Amino acid sequence: MTSPQWLDSWSADDGAARVRTLFTEAFGDDGAPDGVWSAPGRVNLIGEHTDYNAGLALPVALPHRTYVALRSRTDGLVRLASAQAPDERWETALDEVTPGVTHGWGAYVAGVAWALRAAGHEVSGFDAVVDSCVPFGAGLSSSAALECAVAVALDAVHSLGLAADDAGRAELVTACVRAENEIAGAPTGGMDQAASLRCSAGHALLLDCRPGLTALESAERVPFDLAAAGLTLLVVDTRAEHALVDGQYAQRRAACEQAADILGVASLREIAPDELDVALDKLGGTEDAEVLRRRVRHVVTEIARTAEFANLVRAGRATEVGPLMNASHASLRDDYEVSAHELDLVVEAALGAGALGARMTGGGFGGSAIALVRAADVDGVTAAVQTAFDEAGLAAPGFLLAPPSDPAR
Ligand code: GLA
Q1: pLDDT at residue 243 above 80?
Q2: What is the C-alpha separation between 318 and 329, in angstroms, rounded?
Q3: Which of 118, 139, 252, 292 is the most buried (most CB within 10 A)?
């Protein structure tokens, strides 16, 4: 068996040292950065493809973070360098950042400044460098980690005061989501940015994505002390290709909107589980309707599973959530059709080796899966997944541990 590849997180000091060094190399001629900020990637415990349906999601922040060293400028220029793209210096004038026009990885960064300005905040240009231990393209929200690190950096250098409390952080979430939707052009739903900015160590974040809620109403921090329960959250990066800017994610979102239209509701959140059968009948029996029926069934049942999962965790019964995770995976695989062979393989191998529950996490079509594992079984589950990939002739997956960690700071 190939030995498992562990993708370790960096210490805060290590992350800060990396971007300070990179800043000196890239922009050091003009002095030191104003400071260093960082934001985590996330895994979602349950509540998948529910955020853009005004539903519930339950993410935790990863210990893996994106680090940004930033210095503001007075001339309106944005200049960026990244350890992940060393040969690709990115530059624009902030005034020229425009939906549909600004492209490349810098869109995720400059887009945040654009969105903060659009919300009425005074934000100038800046020099920034980026380095990250959030695996890229793994469905662990490396793009949200980048946006959110930049958001807290700009908040600090312009003394906006938004990162100081949860209501302000919710405003930063809105700016990051606008950056991603409108400037970077990925039609995502907002869970990732909320996780990165509003999670709390030792807790899962129960997000209620109905529009118009106050910050207080939209998020609850549910204590999720895995270690005390003798549990480990294992993340497997399948390294199967995953991209949200492609058409599949947008198609799922459009299907949900179409179904809501036919059903005469503002969002699928409005359909209670006991109204599901009536709603499915109403969608009709044609082949096209059959696809919509499956999409709706996933969303409505997934929201219910998320509420149930949170109830179990609140009641100190975290060891009982496994069947909900498994049902979520089956629903995403069969009804929502966003899983991938590699994700199904992780789930099957992990459960076979004694995981309490396992499922794909994030948008799907590749990316990562999670397994909730008794601490004593981590090695066995890891080995089983590794062996399954070896036997299937797949490239080695990456393994991460995910104790619920700190938000952007
Ligand atoms: C991606 C998106 C999120 C969410 C998930 C699926 O991570 O960025 O907004 O829709 O997929 O739950």
Answers
A1: no
A2: 18
A3: 139
Q: Is 127 a catalytic residue?
A: no
Closest residue by Cα to residue 405 from 55, 66, 50, 34: 66
Per-position DSSP letters for 299-335, written without gaps between them? HHHHHHHHHHHHHHHHTT-GGG-HHHHHHHHHHHHHT
pLDDT single digits (tens) 167-180? 999 999 999 999 99
- N-to-C CA span, the chain: 40
Contact yes or no for 350/385 (Cβ under 8 A): yes
What are the Cα distances from residue 8, in Å, to 51, 235, 252, 402?
29, 12, 33, 10
Two tokens, residue 380: 């066995």
Residue nearest to atom 8 of ligand 1 (CA): 188
Q: Alpha-carbon distance 169 to 161, whole Å?
A: 9
CA distance 265 to 259: 9
Ligand 1 shell residues, CB under 6 Å:
44, 48-49, 51-52, 188-192, 244, 362-363
Q: How do residues 43-71 score in pLDDT, each as one tens digit?
A: 999 999 999 999 999 999 999 999 999 99
Query: What CA–CA distance (Å, rounded) separates 87 from 82?
Result: 9
Q: In DSSP terms, which residues pair with 231 in a beta bridge?
A: 374
How far apart CA 294 and CA 145 sit, in angstroms, is 32
How do residues 287-319 score in pLDDT, each as one tens digit?
889 999 999 999 999 999 999 999 999 999 999
Do 196 and 286 contact (CB within 8 A), yes or no?
no
User: How many angstroms does the Cα of residue 361 sit away from the middle of ligand 1?
Assistant: 9
Q: Whose CA is nearest to atom 11 of ligand 1?
A: 363
Of 84, 87, 196, 93, the closest CA to residue 130 belongs to 84
pLDDT of residue 242: 64
Residue with structure tokens 């950065």? Answer: 33
Looking at this protein, which amino acid is placed at residue 43? V
Take residue 408 and report the two structure tokens written for it.
């952007």
- In the set 127, 131, 155, 192, the catalytic residue is 192
Q: SS3 for 383?
A: helix
**Alpha-carbon distance 169 to 155, whole Å?**
10
73 CA → ligand 1 middle, Å: 33
Dihedrals phi, psi of 158, to nearest 5 degrees:
-105, 10
